Request: fold
Amino acid sequence: MTRLLHLGNVVMDLVLEVPALPERGGDVLATRTERTPGGGFNVLAAAARQGLPVTYAGAHGTGPFGDRARSALDAEGIDVLSAPRPDLDTGFVVCLVDAEGERTFVTSPGAEATLTVGDLAELRPGPDDFVYISGYSLLHEANRGALTQWVPQLDQRVTVIVDPGPLVDEIPTAALELFLARADWWTCNAREALLLTGIDDPSAAAVAVRSRLKRGSALIRTGPDGCLLHHEGTLSAIPGFTVRAVDLNGAGDAHTGVFMAALAKGLTPSDAALRANAAAAVAVTRSGPATAPDAHALDEFLRQSRPVPR
Reply:
């Protein structure tokens, strides 16, 4: 059976809902606060809720944040590969969600930023497995060193999915080029595609991203409009769904997790992308970062909803 092996970073999210971001040096009262697992957890949970077997292969810590993260992974039925670091807790992210549902992050790295190639010695993906790489990992020197050693040794039949994240322009060039060369799927949003290519138009950026990949296909998320898929020489616009958004946090993660699960189940890339668009639409109607629907809820949404071409 196909597995998803996630080599990103599970952290704790400290979520604060605010009327608006404060000006520099200012202050604002939060209208709601929440502590919840986040970061890579959102992708893991989205895929697991679709029935895909998932393993978290990243590092994690000893302490209240690490304990909370492992408990959440266990509740989702997600395997954890390695033992916790004995002297360092899992890191956290302060997430500010404004009245329009937009989110702003500040990250404090912890144990998840200490991955070594030795941690991956027991991880041997099969030819049908999926390996997920987060751009956040490539910003941490230890993780970047481990992944740039380990990934080139993978069987070429293993599907590698790379999500570069919002700091794609800060990934060191050598690592960026290595993963552009190995990725089977490069998935990011339109802003991240702009940072990577310098092109503001999402369609043109999708073509430019695909031109930098040696073997893979590009998926560019375009918010409520859905996503753009550049696969096997064809650029397709996959429509989104109209919903009332209350929190955009985690929508991209829901999209990526469900897209991978759908591919693993044998859906075509276009059908998998449409299902992922629907999952992201459901996710933004719920408050919190890990709001991807399970398979039953997503099937029900798709039965009752129709995509809206833009």
Remarks:
- The CA atoms of residues 135 and 168 lie 6 Å apart.
- The chain has a mean pLDDT of 95.
- DSSP finds nine helices and 13 strands in the chain.
- The longest helix spans residues 269-283.
